[in-house]
Design goal:
The protein has 412 residues and is an alpha+beta fold. It folds into two domains: 97 residues, Enolase-like, domain 1 (2-Layer Sandwich), CATH 3.30.390; 296 residues, Cytochrome-c3 Hydrogenase, chain B (Orthogonal Bundle), CATH 1.10.645. Helices cover 48% and strands 15% of the residues.
Length: 412
């Protein structure tokens, strides 16, 4: 009887990226593969520079609020709130309690929106387009509610230095409560699809693991850190806005499963539990909403004059859906800031890709990369360099590999 000899595949290099013509923040991945297994992973971000910080230093602080909001198309108030918090500290502007509560409500609605968007993308990467459509149909409701409260579906333009531009009046509360009940009604179905489906468990359990030790060493933030058991949350550790008045704790996967593995599945758990947590936070804000003004300095000319006299430096922080965002600002008694530096949450999460990807299969790349909810553009193509020369795989072909692995698992 002949023994089948399996020839060991020679290592070869795969590159993914760096650019996609339709999206922002491209990134280049480089993988050393042995067959379908990833031996080493590396990446190179910084392939695009929009010069937002440079533009900001040539505008006054009120103009920068709207510029900052356009750093990210999903996190509508993340950057504008962080920037305003820094400016308010330097200029010693006291934000009213009512404005703090409104900021918190909009911030938590944005968290629901971002997590639902991510859930749909993750389902698509696994080949579950029906779950993708369901998650995004639910997302439409929160976008409609944000438009109702702020006037915009994407860039809300509600944050202003010293408060907010729009109030939440008593006649708006029933509409908010109606949406919260809708989210609660579909939450069980979403949770069942993403957490109970056998195939999703097979694809995501023990895939893309980031251990607690690796998380502490690499310092990721947001759900990426909390899914590995690192209880890091700016809303709890350094309360701001209305969070000091509210009951909330960092969400970790062991609250549902009793264990922490730090894999893709745990990152799904954290985001779904945070959707439920955000609903409760909004309800607390509506119940405890204080009276008072929504802007500390209602007249724009007076605000600009006060900011022109400001001197000093400060850091504004916000727990965005992806994790901590920081804005550093230094003022020097002039119209524009002397310095403005932004650190987005994805910057902190990038390095966690390396231990997540090494040891996994090529077909797992899409869901592992997506599992940190990166704010980068889609991958355009893959170039494989091996003994037979170079060949190009399109983004669609890479996605097909991920879907094929799902189908193979379903067939057993």
């Amino acid at each position: 009887m002949k023994t089948l000899e399996i020839k060991k595949t020679a290592p070869y290099t795969t590159q993914i990226g760096p650019a996609h013509p339709a999206l922002k923040e491209p990134v280049m991945f480089t993988f050393e593969l042995e067959g379908e297994r990833i031996r080493k992973a590396d990446f190179a971000p910084g392939k695009a520079h929009r010069g937002i910080e440079w533009m900001g230093l040539r505008r006054n602080c009120v103009q920068i609020v709207y510029l900052a909001e356009r750093i990210c198309g999903i996190c509508g108030i993340t950057h504008s709130l962080s920037f305003c918090r820094a400016i308010e500290q330097v200029a010693q502007i006291q934000v009213s309690n009512r404005a703090h509560y409104i900021r918190t409500i909009v911030g938590e609605l944005e968290r629901i929106h971002s997590h639902l968007l991510w859930a749909g993308v993750a389902a698509h990467e696994l080949g579950f387009d029906s779950a993708f459509y369901l998650a995004w149909r639910v997302r439409e409701n929160v976008m409609d509610l944000l438009e109702y409260l702020t006037g915009n579906r994407v860039h809300y333009a509600i944050i202003q230095i010293g408060g907010v531009r729009r109030d939440i009046t008593p006649d708006m509360v029933p509409k908010i409560e109606e949406s919260l009940k809708f989210f609660e009604g579909v939450y069980g179905k979403l949770a069942s699809i993403f957490l109970d489906d056998t195939t999703i468990q097979m694809r995501c359990r023990d895939c893309g693991v980031l251990t607690p030790e690796e998380a502490l060493k690499l310092c990721p933030v947001g759900p990426t850190a909390r899914a590995s058991g690192v209880r890091k949350d700016v809303r709890v550790d350094h309360p701001y806005a209305a969070y000091a008045d509210l009951e909330l704790q960092p969400v970790t996967p062991d609250q549902l499963t009793g264990e922490i593995r730090g894999d893709v599945y745990d990152r799904i758990i954290v985001r779904l539990l945070e959707v439920k947590q955000s609903i409760g936070i909004i309800r607390q804000c509506l119940a405890q909403m204080p009276d008072g003004p929504i802007l500390a300095v209602p007249k724009m000319a007076l605000l600009l004059a006060q900011l022109k006299k400001a001197e000093g430096e400060a850091v504004g922080r916000h727990e965005a859906p992806r994790g901590e965002v920081m804005h550093y600002v230094r003022m020097g008694k002039q119209e524009s800031p002397v310095a403005w530096k932004v650190k987005a949450s994805s910057y902190s999460n990038y390095m966690s890709w390396v231990p997540m990807l090494e040891g996994e299969q090529v077909a797992d790349i899409p869901i592992i990369v997506a599992s940190i909810d990166p704010c980068i553009s889609c991958t355009d193509r893959v170039t494989i360099v091996g003994d037979q020369g170079a060949q190009v795989w399109t983004k669609e072909e890479l996605h097909r590999l991920s879907v094929e692995k799902t189908r193979q698992l379903q067939l057993g």
